Amino acid sequence: MKAADILLAVLVALVWGFNFVVIKVGLGAFPPILFVALRFFFAAVPAVFFISRKGIPWRWLVALGVSLGVVKFGLLFVGMNMGMPAGLSSLVLQCQAVFTLLMAALVLKDVPTKWQAGGVIVACAGMGLLISDMSGTPSFTGLMLVIAAGFFWGVSNIIMKKVGKVDMLSLIVWMSLVPPLPLLGLSVVMETGQWEAITQMTLTGAGVLFYISIISTVFAFAAWAQLFKQYSPNMVAPFSLLVPIFGILSASVVLGEEFTAIEMAASCLVFSGILLVVFGNRVAVAFAKRSVPQ
């Protein structure tokens, strides 16, 4: 990869990692479900007037809009609103890689390697340690909701696989039309203070919405899609592992979040497991080549 493209990939990971800090700040200004609805509304409008749908079937846009926009982000924002720290959320959400691998094996018959299976076990051990440590604390429900968000991210990844090769920016922008209405309905039923949050919006609130809808969604996905067009997925995808690192670091610097010893140990297990899931195929191929007589 060219140096400029490497920097772009790192920048996207930084944008997505810092996004968890921005979400945490935004939750102080907006009810969580309304917050998600506004995110997708401003990600779609006015972009849909300038970016064509390019023939992407509506059934896939609706499926992704519900699984990714309504359920995954709804669970994530509510979970973080219930006390789940931003840095820890950025890492726990990456359990989507484990769920994606398991669902790919069940739905797509994509059999994981032994290394990837080992990664699932290690990551699950880390998740189990976190669940055990946080059970009985105010943040426990938030943790379970973020894990559930990771599961539905995995569901959306399988749907993306079914969609096939499409223009990623068009997909994200047009998919963003789906979540606002159902989320607004849920917000009306489950939340209060929506009108005050909108009419009394501060510059901080407006900046948060701009960041998560335009910078984190439209810009970052456009840049990510461009990198995937220029390079193979095996070269680009590993940069996503920087997201929880940037998320944890930025949450520590900006929000003053700290990990306990158990949270640190559990996080190391989760991250190690995800590394094996992501790079398991490469490890298996490398060992196979070494075992072949020269």
Topology:
Blueprint: H1 3-26, H2 32-44, H3 58-81, H4 86-92, H5 96-107, H6 114-134, H7 140-163, H8 168-175, H9 180-190, H10 194-199, H11 203-230, H12 233-236, H13 242-255, H14 261-291
Helix pairs in contact: 1-4, 1-11, 1-13, 2-3, 2-9, 2-11, 3-7, 4-13, 5-7, 6-14, 8-11
Which key terms come to mind for this protein?
294 residues; mainly alpha; 14 helices; 77% helix; globular; EamA_dom; EmrE-like
Written description of the protein model:
With 294 residues, the chain is an all-alpha fold. It has one domain. Helix 1 crosses helix 13, helix 3 runs antiparallel to helix 7 and helix 8 runs antiparallel to helix 11.
Number of strands: 0
Q: How does the helix and strand content classify structurally?
A: mainly alpha
State the major sheet: none
Report helical residue fraction: over 70%
Low-pLDDT stretches: none
What is the rounded Rg? 19 Å
Distance between the termini: 31 Å
User: Helix and strand string, N-terminal first?
Assistant: HHHHHHHHHHHHHH
What is the count of structural domains? 1
Concise overview:
The protein is mainly α. The protein is built from 14 helices and no strands.
